[in-house]
């Protein structure tokens, strides 16, 4: 009789701690997200000292943290981390996110490729991001869509196109 009660108490304590920790992290992420457009540097200051959610945290919190951190880094003109995590974030939001979240995730993946000098892959991500926009809804993030089209236009300038062609047609040594 004592063993089941002990197991129940330990489980309850673990569950209440995890949910309290997740609630605190969720509130922190909400705060960072609310500052993202007007004060991205403040959002980055909130996110940077925060420990990334570990394995016991929900995948929703881990992906949201990664998305917000990438967005804050991008808006503060910092180079985005490798594309590996951002591909995982984009895949996650493709399965579980709203139209705005999918658009944001693919835009940030495109920005990462842009920073890496991979313009064709960046353009592909921007196009995919623009396709995610649901402009028939009132909550469509038109500001994000504007950013996407701006980046696409930036990649379509003659000098950028010339640089892309030069990379594609490098002379082959015989």
What does this structure look like?
The protein is an all-alpha fold. 74% of the residues lie in helices and 0% in strands. It has eight helices and no strands. Helix 3 crosses helix 5. The longest helix has 34 residues. The N terminus is likely disordered.
Principal-axes geometry comes out as: globular
Strand-and-helix sequence, N→C? HHHHHHHH
Q: Whole-number radius of gyration?
A: 20 Å
End-to-end separation in angstroms reads 81 Å
The helix tally amounts to 8
Determine the structural class based on helices, strands and strand pairing.
mainly alpha
- The overall pLDDT average reads 83
Unreliable stretches, pLDDT < 50, 5 or more residues?
3-17
Major beta sheet summary: none
Describe the SSE topology.
Layout: H1 2-35, H2 40-47, H3 59-75, H4 83-96, H5 99-115, H6 119-132, H7 142-155, H8 158-168
Helix pairs in contact: 1-2, 1-3, 2-3, 3-4, 3-5, 4-5, 5-6, 5-7, 6-7
Tell me briefly what this model is.
The chain is mainly alpha-helical and about 170 residues long. It has eight helices and no strands.
Defining traits:
single chain; 174 residues; mainly alpha; 8 helices; globular; disordered N terminus
């Amino acid at each position: 009789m004592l063993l089941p009660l002990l197991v129940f108490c330990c489980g309850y304590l673990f569950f209440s701690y995890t949910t309290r920790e997740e609630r605190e992290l969720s509130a922190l992420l909400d705060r960072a997200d609310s500052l993202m457009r007007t004060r991205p540097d403040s959002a980055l200051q909130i996110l940077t000292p925060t420990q990334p959610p570990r394995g016991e945290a929900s995948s929703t919190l881990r992906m949201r943290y990664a998305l917000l951190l990438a967005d804050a880094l991008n808006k503060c003109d910092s180079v985005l981390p490798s594309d590996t995590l951002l591909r995982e974030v984009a895949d996650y939001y493709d399965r579980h996110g709203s139209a705005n979240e999918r658009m944001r995730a693919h835009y940030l993946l495109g920005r990462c490729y842009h920073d890496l000098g991979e313009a064709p892959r960046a353009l592909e991500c921007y196009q995919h991001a623009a396709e995610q926009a649901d402009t028939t809804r009132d909550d469509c993030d038109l500001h994000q869509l504007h950013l996407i089209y701006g980046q696409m236009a930036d990649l379509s300038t003659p000098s950028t196109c010339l640089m892309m062609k030069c990379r594609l047609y490098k002379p082959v040594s015989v």
